[in-house]
Amino acid sequence: MAPPNGYSINSTPLDESEDGEPLIENDRVPSACCSARLNLAFLMFLGFSVVYGLRVNLSVAMVAMVNITDPTPAPNSSVFHACPLPAGMENSSDTFPQQDGIPQYPWDSETQGWLLGAFFFGYLCTQIPGGYLSGHYGGSIFMGLGVLGTAALTLLTPLAAQMGIYWLFALRALEGFGEGVTFPAMMAMWARWAPPMERSRLMTLSGSGANFGAFVSLPLTGYICQTLGWPAVFYLCGGAGCLWAVFWFIFVSDDPRTHRRISEEEKDYIISSIGSQGTGHGWSVPLLPMLLSVPLWAIIVTQMCANWSYYTLLTSLPTYMNNILHFDLKSNGFLSALPYLGAWLASTLSGVVADSLIEKKVFSVTNVRKIFTITGLLPGAAFLLAVAYSGCSHILTVTFLTLSTTIGGTSACGVFINQIDIAPRYAGFLLGITNTFGTIPGVLAPIATGYFTEDHTLAGWRKVFWVAAGVNVAGAIIYTLFGSGKTQPWAVAEEEVAEAEKNRSTSIIT
């Protein structure tokens, strides 16, 4: 029996090609231009831009919030600079001046590392519950409330900082708690909205908002700190998140069946393409088979490895630009953001290329995911090592950092969307699991960086880049050996198997 209306459907393990990949047909596909699914991707893009603005604003604002590099210098000692100060800065203070009435705090590098990592303590807690509930109820409410809650808490950051580091740590952890549901909710929604032939481009477009948000917020934060003072950063970012939530709740629906403005042609195409895998997974999930799934563990370990370097740069790069290379705050924000512009472009373009390779059957889904993962991790590691030995050269450091993060963006259509390949029905829940493990580097990387760089030397930062590069290489090796793009048997419900057998029998008879 042919797929209804000539549209493609998700296959079960009983309907596979010789290499084990799903057989997907693609005859009449409604245009994506101005479609409901593209509008959803754009709103998600804006949402993740806001999410990462809320996440990284403290990284740059910290430079303005801290009034001295070392609050307890040794008697009769002079301040040591790893790199020479630019002309005119030799006699300047390390203190970043703020307007009258705006407080600054004597936080050492270890305290700053803990505060930067606090977000991820909360972020760890809601990944799995958020993915599970999103898969059952739908993801729109969880993504909307996650961003709205985080934005509202961000407005309280100046008050928490004034009350003390423990209050600020707790607030940042609560922000992470609210934001932890956003990525699993996104994956659960795309399980119901993304046709198999468009998964890479739709998911990388929406997820690339994270890199775009980092690119915009890092220089913007530096500019706001210099012109309005650092508290304004948190008021503006929090307000932007609240405004986005209004549009999200007005225009977004969990399922194409319930969307008020979708065309009948697009709705039929999406529903027919995804098939029964585009429905909720109910209350029960196959936990034991998931626990024993080698492809799932390959995703978990590889995402942990890839995120180590990503979070290291995301949270600590502004500090490196300030303490080692001595960029002023405006330049610091722009140059710290430049790598994420490259990552945004690379991830978006790679999604289009990946879908094209799959659609034209140039490579199997498994090979496409592995190719883009390796392409992102191995060259990215090489450029991190180049940064480690760039010394005080501003040009080389910025160039290699930009190349490392840009190339790393290609892994967005590799391991980072692989959950929906191996188990579409449970994609949100699986992303909750993988992102929980993948967030552990977000907790440990800033703390490790603070430990390695206590003396603010190039040697200490060289250790930071060596560790990040080595972890990247380990992730590439593991995913090459154990990764897969095949739908796993435990992800297919019994009724789907029975339906596939019935369809095959009918096809043979006719």
Structure characterization notes:
The protein has 510 residues and is an all-alpha fold. The protein contains 20 helices and no strands. It is globular, with a radius of gyration of 24 Å.
Order of helices and strands: HHHHHHHHHHHHHHHHHHHH
Biggest beta sheet attributes: none
N-to-C span:
8 Å
Silhouette? globular
Structural classification: mainly alpha
Number of helices: 20
Helix content: 55-70%
**Beta-strand content estimate:** under 5%
Provide the residue-averaged pLDDT.
Answer: 81
Low-confidence stretches: 1-26, 69-79
Strand tally:
0
Taking Cα atoms only, what radius of gyration do you get, to the nearest Å? 24 Å
Keywords, please?
20 helices; 510 residues; mainly alpha; disordered N terminus; globular
Helices and strands in order:
Layout: H1 36-65, H2 109-123, H3 127-137, H4 140-154, H5 157-163, H6 165-179, H7 182-193, H8 199-207, H9 209-227, H10 230-251, H11 264-274, H12 287-291, H13 294-323, H14 329-359, H15 365-388, H16 394-408, H17 419-422, H18 427-452, H19 458-482, H20 494-509
Short structural summary:
With 510 residues, the protein is mainly alpha-helical. Helix content is 67%, strand content 0%.
